[in-house]
């Protein structure tokens, strides 16, 4: 089965990178997390209740909502800041992508996992010269992320494929049960940064154009 | 597959709680504060849809009052309207959230207990997310008794989108197919945050203001102006427009100056049969201090552009052609000197001089083509060098 894949492309200032990714990932995880399953002796279970928290961004004009779970937030924060540090580092080109991948496992061994939904954020960093530009960018990125959040809710309400509710013994093949407050579907975060070789300059492109035109 | 009585009852109950919880989510998101509810391992009686949504008693009572104890699914659409009221009493509807039912699109196979219930939970999560990103959210975070407050109103009717001004947007948050039809949750929201004379209802103040724009009509009689402006000026938010007398077409000026600043197409207006109940101030819900009854029974929530504009200074507006014209021809609050930097700049842009290159160009007949060709020929060596360097440069880009 092919995994559903959504790709968001954003151009942001370096300091906005963490919040831009977090707002998208947390909105997705809020929809993809259930209350904790509580099993009784007969094998039936009750589902806990998910709480939610408003998060104001510091560098983007945006408020988003996430599950009230400090440990889930910490996991996401850690992954995103590893990505953002490399993206903003001197070696990179300021272009990279980070994915939130939901998967299910066939067996208890970690190797055999099937992804069923992937959310990718592609970032390109820009440098701004003054406070005026920063102000504009802060609003613009807020508007862009608003569109992305609306799109996420649209996708969530299409009611596409979700893994079947497992029995108690197979719960860990579908859900991540390590968080004390919520029970998200199993997920992992991957990222990659573009190398510097991909860059082209106007000069070299012009040379190439002339050469090709003259068939040299 | 026909729905059993028990299933129908259950579905009605779910729909009712979907509406109750939606109202709580919407109103609480407009209180002006950040919210946080904890996760709970054990679900209790009021924790519907496995989502921890607080129940504010005032909001719950208000919602139940509107529902009137009847079966909700047969009375949809159900709307929650969010509006803004300034300290001066001016009023502007910001958004209409609507839960509706499309009976023609039903899914008889949907298993009510699990599927519908779980999907309602997802829909409410989406609602929580969307309430934070519509423009009214940022406004609500800035409200205060000295500037403006946010109010809500619940009603059972089609959403009154004509109150949202020109260019309002609609977003479908989600839908759930059930055996009785498709439940749909959507929001329509205002995008233009200034109250223009279009939305205002105080006829007198409008006419006074209109004189300011009316520079071309200085010599026209007063009655003519009234007629033309009456035509372009549309109704206030809650006016029954059927009672609006239409002016004699012969009296209408062919092209009223700056009509676009006032005009609003009639297609946006729908008659509203129902009288409107009072809005509830969310600040009052929060503090529970006083019951607010609005003094808008007399007809229109009236507003002038000045008061609201000053309140909403920080809101950005997309510049339009009309704005440009306003700058050019003495905007109401602009400085009146024609020598101001901005107007000079605009004038220079409008009438940019042609390029010197083209002015000095001699007629085609006088061009000395022979000389040009000679000079090209003498530079031949240089061209050869460029081509050679291109050939020698590496191929990758």
Automatic annotation (TrEMBL), chain A:
<dbReference type="GO" id="GO:0019901">
    <property type="term" value="F:protein kinase binding"/>
</dbReference>
<comment type="similarity">
    <text>Belongs to the ATG101 family.</text>
</comment>
<dbReference type="InterPro" id="IPR012445">
    <property type="entry name" value="ATG101"/>
</dbReference>
<dbReference type="GO" id="GO:0000045">
    <property type="term" value="P:autophagosome assembly"/>
</dbReference>
<keyword id="KW-0072">Autophagy</keyword>
<protein>
    <recommendedName>
        <fullName>Autophagy-related protein 101</fullName>
    </recommendedName>
</protein>
<dbReference type="Pfam" id="PF07855">
    <property type="entry name" value="ATG101"/>
</dbReference>
<dbReference type="GO" id="GO:1990316">
    <property type="term" value="C:Atg1/ULK1 kinase complex"/>
</dbReference>
<dbReference type="GO" id="GO:0000407">
    <property type="term" value="C:phagophore assembly site"/>
</dbReference>
TrEMBL record, chain B:
<dbReference type="GO" id="GO:0034727">
    <property type="term" value="P:piecemeal microautophagy of the nucleus"/>
</dbReference>
<dbReference type="GO" id="GO:1990316">
    <property type="term" value="C:Atg1/ULK1 kinase complex"/>
</dbReference>
<dbReference type="GO" id="GO:0000407">
    <property type="term" value="C:phagophore assembly site"/>
</dbReference>
<dbReference type="InterPro" id="IPR040182">
    <property type="entry name" value="ATG13"/>
</dbReference>
<feature type="domain" description="Autophagy-related protein 13 N-terminal">
    <location>
        <begin position="90"/>
        <end position="193"/>
    </location>
</feature>
<dbReference type="InterPro" id="IPR036570">
    <property type="entry name" value="HORMA_dom_sf"/>
</dbReference>
<comment type="similarity">
    <text>Belongs to the ATG13 family. Metazoan subfamily.</text>
</comment>
<protein>
    <recommendedName>
        <fullName>Autophagy-related protein 13</fullName>
    </recommendedName>
</protein>
<dbReference type="GO" id="GO:0000423">
    <property type="term" value="P:mitophagy"/>
</dbReference>
<feature type="compositionally biased region" description="Basic and acidic residues">
    <location>
        <begin position="283"/>
        <end position="298"/>
    </location>
</feature>
<dbReference type="InterPro" id="IPR018731">
    <property type="entry name" value="Atg13_N"/>
</dbReference>
<dbReference type="GO" id="GO:0034497">
    <property type="term" value="P:protein localization to phagophore assembly site"/>
</dbReference>
<dbReference type="GO" id="GO:0005829">
    <property type="term" value="C:cytosol"/>
</dbReference>
<keyword id="KW-0072">Autophagy</keyword>
<dbReference type="Pfam" id="PF10033">
    <property type="entry name" value="ATG13"/>
</dbReference>
<feature type="region of interest" description="Disordered">
    <location>
        <begin position="264"/>
        <end position="306"/>
    </location>
</feature>
């Amino acid at each position: 089965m092919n995994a559903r894949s959504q790709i968001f492309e954003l151009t942001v200032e370096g300091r906005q990178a963490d919040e831009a990714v977090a707002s998208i990932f947390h909105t997705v995880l809020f929809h993809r997390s259930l209350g904790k399953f509580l099993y009784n002796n007969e094998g039936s279970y009750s589902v806990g209740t998910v709480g939610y928290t408003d998060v104001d961004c510091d560098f983007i004009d945006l408020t988003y909502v996430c599950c009230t779970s400090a440990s889930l937030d910490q996991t996401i924060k850690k992954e995103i800041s590893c990505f953002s540090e490399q993206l903003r580092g001197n070696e990179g080109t300021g272009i990279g992508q980070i994915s939130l991948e939901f998967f299910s496992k066939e067996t208890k061994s970690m190797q055999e996992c099937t992804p069923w939904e992937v959310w990718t954020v592609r970032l390109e960093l820009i440098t701004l010269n003054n406070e005026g530009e920063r102000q504009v960018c802060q609003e613009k990125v807020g508007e862009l992320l608003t569109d992305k959040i609306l799109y996420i809710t649209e996708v969530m309400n299409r009611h596409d494929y979700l893994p079947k509710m497992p029995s108690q013994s197979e719960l860990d093949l579908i859900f991540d049960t390590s968080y004390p407050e919520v029970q998200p579907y199993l997920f992992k975060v991957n990222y990659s940064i573009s190398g510097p070789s991909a860059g082209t300059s106007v000069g070299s492109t012009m040379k190439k154009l002339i050469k090709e035109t003259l068939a040299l | 597959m026909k729905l059993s009585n028990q299933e129908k009852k259950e579905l009605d109950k779910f729909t009712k709680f979907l509406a109750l919880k939606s109202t709580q989510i919407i109103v609480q998101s407009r209180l002006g504060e950040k919210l946080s509810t904890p996760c709970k391992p054990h679900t209790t009686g009021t924790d519907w849809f496995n989502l921890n949504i607080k129940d504010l008693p005032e909001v719950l009572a208000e919602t139940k009052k509107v529902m009137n104890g009847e079966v909700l699914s047969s009375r949809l659409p159900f709307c929650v309207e969010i509006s803004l009221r300034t300290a001066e009493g001016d009023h502007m509807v910001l958004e209409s959230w609507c839960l509706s039912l499309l009976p023609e699109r039903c899914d008889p196979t949907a298993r009510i207990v699990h599927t519908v219930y779980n999907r309602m939970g997802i829909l409410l999560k989406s609602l929580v997310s969307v309430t934070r990103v519509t423009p009214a959210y940022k406004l609500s975070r800035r409200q205060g008794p000295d500037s403006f407050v946010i109010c809500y109103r619940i009603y059972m009717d089609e959403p009154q989108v004509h109150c949202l001004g020109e260019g309002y947007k609609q977003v479908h948050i989600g839908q759930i197919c059930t055996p009785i039809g498709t439940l749909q949750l959507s929001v329509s929201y205002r995008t233009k945050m200034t109250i223009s004379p279009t939305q205002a209802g105080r006829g007198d103040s409008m006419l006074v203001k209109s004189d300011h724009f009316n520079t071309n009509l200085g010599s026209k009689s007063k009655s003519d102006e009234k007629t033309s402006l009456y035509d372009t000026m549309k109704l206030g938010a809650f006016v029954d427009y059927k009672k609006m007398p239409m002016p004699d077409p012969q009296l209408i000026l062919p092209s009223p100056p700056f009509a676009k600043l006032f005009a609003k197409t009639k297609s946006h207006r729908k008659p509203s049969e129902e009288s409107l109940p009072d809005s509830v101030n969310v600040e009052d819900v929060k503090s529970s201090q006083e019951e607010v009854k609005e003094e808008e029974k007399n007809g229109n929530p009236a507003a002038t552009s000045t008061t609201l504009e000053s309140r909403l200074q920080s809101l950005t507006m997309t510049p339009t052609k009309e704005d440009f014209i306003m700058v050019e021809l003495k905007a109401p609050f602009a400085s009146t000197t024609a020598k101001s930097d901005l107007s000079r700049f605009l004038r220079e842009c409008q009438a940019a001089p042609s390029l010197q290159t083209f002015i000095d160009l001699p007629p085609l007949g006088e061009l000395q083509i022979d000389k040009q060709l000679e000079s090209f020929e003498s530079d031949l060596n240089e061209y050869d060098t460029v081509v050679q360097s291109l050939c020698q440069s590496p191929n990758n880009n």
